[in-house]
Amino acid sequence: MAQGNVTLTEFTGKLYQSVVQADGEIYHRYTQDGINFSDWILTGNVPESGGISISTIVHNGQLYQAVLVALSGKIYTRSSTDAITWGTWEQFGVAQGHVAMISYQGSLYQAVIQSDGEVYTRVVGSSAGWQQGGMAEGNVALTVFNNKLYQSVVQEDEDVYLRYCEITTCDVNSGWSSWYKGEKLNKNAYLLWTQ
């Protein structure tokens, strides 16, 4: 039985679907045609149990998995060059919710919301560590558009905020724009969304 979420990632010409089961075992399966999938394949275990979300992304020819354990808040990351043999888990930081990941300008970025309600971003493998970047709730979204790295969150006022970075390394806050505030949904749209 799966828990948390499911991910889809294209890697080496295959579409991989990954899940974490309630016992902490990670499984994936793949398809080459988008219809016929392999059997589920056990790829290993999360180092601890307690409610887990999983994120996957391809960066520099490797498939990365990041998991966030809800009970402890610990974040673990590992990678594979072939989706068969996996490196050891690296534990780096604590958070809540989900680990957002994106490959940008040759670096792998992770963003989370930590228990203090702040957005934190890091470059995997960088000595800079997590960089604080403003208040938020829920999860962080990351994407690349027009050669800029975008980050979006919902803040305490329940409005959507967006900021971007357009330099080679965005692992320090000086590289990011200010947060741009979106417009709140009108009351009717909000009521329809929540019903």
Automatic annotation (TrEMBL):
Domain of life: Bacteria
Protein name: Peptidase M23
Organism field: Vecturithrix granuli
Lineage, highest ranks first: Bacteria, Candidatus Moduliflexota, Candidatus Vecturitrichia, Candidatus Vecturitrichales, Candidatus Vecturitrichaceae
